[in-house]
Amino acid sequence: MNAQSVLLPAIQDLKVAGVQDPAKDARLLLAHSLGVEIGRLTLHLNDDIKELDAEQFQRLVRLRIQRQPVSQILGRRIFYGREFKVTPDVLDPRPETETLVEQALSVDFGDVLDVGTGSGCLLLTLLAERPSAKGAGVDISDAALRVAKDNVASLQLDKKAQLLRSDWFSNVDGKFDLIVSNPPYIDEDEWLTLEPEPRVWEPKIALTPGPDGLMPYRILADGSARYLNDGGWLMVEIGWQQGDAVKMVFEHAGWRNVEIKTDMGGCDRVVRGQKP
After folding, report:
1. Is the CB of residue 122 less than 8 Å from the CB of residue 180?
2. Domain map of the chain by residue range?
3. What is the share, in percent, of the chain residues with pLDDT greater than 70?
4. CB 3.0–4.6 Å: which of 65, 98, 109, 237 could bond 17 by disulfide?
5. Is the distance from CB of 167 to CB of 142 less than 8 angstroms?
6. What's the rounded Cα separation, in Å, for the pair 117 and 105?
7. 170 near 138, Cβ under 8 Å?
8. pLDDT one-digit tens code per residue, 129-165
9. Pairing relation of β-strands 82-85 and 111-115?
10. Which residues of 101-133 are buried (b: 16+ CB within 10 A; e: fewer)?
11. Tens digits of per-residue pLDDT, 92-131?
């Protein structure tokens, strides 16, 4: 029995289960089970596979058939070129969120606050990319903060990053040059229609605020200015249909230079504004 002989039926099983890209996911799980880099998997497909490796692969495939995200199964996700620990206690960092990183890096900042930090991918990426900066990440979830703490340690950013339990700004102190947030913005009716990967396996509190998907943006727009230095920026990720509505929320709260920024797919993805 070689690796190819277990890969092909797994792809078919994942396809039947409704997995969006069954071949890609099966290859990732097989590479992990064999302990090889995904880019070198093809070189090993004709190799004999050990019984234990085959059993592990089949166990991982069963988890994926249950629609658990690959990042959770493997326990990691690459985001902006760095590896982050991922568990069911945090959002799976998505490529679209890198748009928010790019926008944040386009302005000067020495101190950054990440509201709803989750895995810490936003905060820690910004601190790693801007070596002179320091910052804080806040989250209401103790479980999420434990994941973020592990990511702080793995990226060796202990001296630059502070993590705090906070319900929005309730435990925030001091002022910053930049505030970023990827808040829950999917209204509850839409959340009910999501694929199982986010709806079943990711924390609901990080995906939906309830019936009103704009509520988090009102909280951020109304509360952020007091924690920003003069000229500071607030930047948020948005749903692709929310651009105009969130822009209006910012403008109604008095923010200056409010702009909508699109992601690589051309979808509205970030709204940013400068302290009023």
Report:
1. yes
2. 3-66, 91-274
3. 100
4. 65
5. no
6. 17
7. no
8. 999 999 999 999 999 999 999 999 999 999 999 999 9
9. unpaired
10. bebbeeeebebbbbbbbbbbbbbbbbbbebeeb
11. 999 999 999 999 999 999 999 999 999 999 999 999 999 9
CA angle 77/166/139 to nearest 5° reads: 10
* Six token digits for residue 91: 């959002």
Contacts with 209 (C-beta within 8 Å, 6 or more apart), sequence order: 183, 184, 185, 187, 215, 216
Q: Do residues 137 and 148 make contact, with C-beta atoms less than 8 angstroms apart?
A: yes
Class of 91-274 per CATH?
A: alpha beta
- Residue 85, strand partner residues: 76
Q: Would you list the DSSP string of 194-240? A: S-HHHHHHS-GGGT--BS-TTHHHHHHHHHSGGGEEEEEEEEEE--T
Mean pLDDT of 251-268: 97
Q: Other C-beta atoms within 10 Å of 188: how many?
A: 14
pTM metric for this prediction: 0.94
